[in-house]
Amino acid sequence: MENNNKYIFSERPMLVYWEITRSCDLACKHCRAEAQHTRNSLELQGDECYSILDQVKSFGAPYPQIVLTGGDPLNHPDWEKILIRANEIGISVAFAPSATHNLTKEVFQRLKDLGVPALSLSLDGATSQSHDTFRGVEHCFEYTMQALGYAQEVGIPIQINTLVSGNTLHELEDIYNLLTNFSIMRWSVFFLISVGRGTALKELTAEKTEEVLEWITAKAKTAPFAIKTTEAPHYRRIFIQKMKKSGDRTVKLASLPVSRGFGIRDGNGIMFISHLGDVNPSGFLNIKAGNVRQQNLVDIYRNSEVFSKIRNPENYVGKCGICEYKYICGGSRARAYAATGNYLASDNLCSYEPAHAKEENLAAVLQEI
């Protein structure tokens, strides 16, 4: 059944997030990993890292892209070796470092030389005071601005990640305005999942989330960079609704950047490998589906109970289970789990009431565009 729907990615993920270490020099208020300065002695390293790269390639073409994350991946002693090996076997690896004094121009040049196609940085405040306070160390804002300059100099495309919560919402417009001064490829707006240190932050209401997503939709029309959401897949539903309301039949939905994310969410097109080798549907959904030290990565993704259940929206319950947008959206599985303990439950940050009576299917929704 899974293979009959193009929005169910049963054969391979699009993205493999690999947390190669939890060591980090920052102390971010929302850190899902609750990162520490010291590396764990049980982290994957050496041949174990090479094995993961080989297993990712065994998914077959088109190969998933790996995102090396953490913690700070620069704190892992094998980060260069991993990139060299990935280059040798034809696997694309993006990089998500922390903005610290370690992120020098020489590091950027080395990343460029090793074929890194893109890099992401975080910006959660429009000023040094707000951003540094959120990141838990001084000068982080300065290092981030400096890193943006280095990226432009060496020619590495940059994605900026920004958290949206009750604690940061008031600066969202200012952050957007600040980013228009830089040549970035994408702004990823991440909606808080209450895990790790993030449990101490304020989550938005469903109504406020809808307002923010509508604001993002409006900004996306004129922004000098692409805008996407993380853990707020109902952005796609809002985008489609806006197009339907406008009555514009000249623009094909499939030609717009937003359509490339249709269906992708925790466990469907995405998988996560922890520093200890545990495999989860995402970094924010801490349900172990297997471990690469004992099992094959491809088998875990294709056949484990967790991934098989989570990527098929027919298994969802509550509003998400009857929603006509469930295949392209599906809600945040991580948020559903954080709120209810059930990763198949509804996303509580979505205020939309599905068309119960009509029970429209995906084809009908898209046909109206």
Molecular structure report:
- The chain is of the alpha/beta class and 369 residues long.
- 33% of the residues lie in helices and 13% in strands.
- The chain is built from 13 helices and eleven strands.
- Strand 1, helix 1 (47-57) and strand 2 form a beta-alpha-beta unit.
- Helix 1 (47-57) runs parallel beside helix 2 (79-89) and helix 7 (206-220) crosses helix 8.
- It is globular and about 50 Å long.
- It starts with 14 loop residues before the first strand and ends with a helix.
- The mean pLDDT is 91.
Give short descriptive properties of this protein:
4-stranded parallel beta sheet, alpha/beta, about 375 residues, about 35% helix
Please render the helix and strand layout as text.
Elements: E1 15-19, H1 47-57, E2 65-69, H2 79-89, E3 93-95, H3 105-113, E4 119-122, H4 128-135, H5 140-154, E5 158-164, H6 172-179, E6 186-191, H7 206-220, E7 226-230, H8 234-246, E8 265-266, E9 269-273, E10 278-280, E11 290-291, H9 297-303, H10 305-310, H11 319-322, H12 333-340, H13 362-367
Parallel strand pairs: 1-2, 1-9, 2-3, 4-5, 5-6, 6-7, 8-9
Antiparallel strand pairs: 9-10, 10-11
Helix pairs in contact: 1-2, 3-5, 7-8
Q: Choose one word for the global shape.
A: globular
* Head-to-tail CA distance between termini: 26 Å
Please work out how many helical segments DSSP would assign: 13
Q: How helical, in percent, are the residues?
A: 25-40%
The helix/strand order is EHEHEHEHHEHEHEHEEEEHHHHH
E-strand count: 11
Radius of gyration: 20 Å
Strand content: 5-15%
User: Average pLDDT, to the nearest integer?
Assistant: 91
Uncertain ranges: none
How is the biggest beta sheet arranged? 7 strands, mixed
**Which structural category do the helix and sheet elements fall into?**
alpha/beta
